[in-house]
Amino acid sequence: MSTMEKKELGQEDYLPWFEVFYKLLNILADYTTKQQ
Question: Using an 8 Å Cβ cutoff, are 12 and 6 in contact?
C-alpha cells in the first residue's frame, strides 16, 4: 500500500505489520491457486 493510498484512507499511522500480513496472505493465496 502506497503512502497516497494510506492518506486517502486516513490511516497514515496504520500498523505496519498489517501490511506485511496482507502481503503474506496474497502470496499464500497465489501459491494455493497455483497448486490446484
Answer: yes
Range of the domain at 7: 3-35
Q: Which residue has the cell 494455493?
A: 32
Cell of 9: 484512507
How many domains does the structure of the chain reveal?
A: 1
pLDDT, position 19: 85
The three three-digit cell numbers of residue 26, written as one number: 496474497
* Of 23, 3, 28, the residue nearest 13 (C-alpha): 3
Write out pLDDT tens, residues 1-36.
Answer: 566 665 666 555 666 788 889 999 999 999 999 997
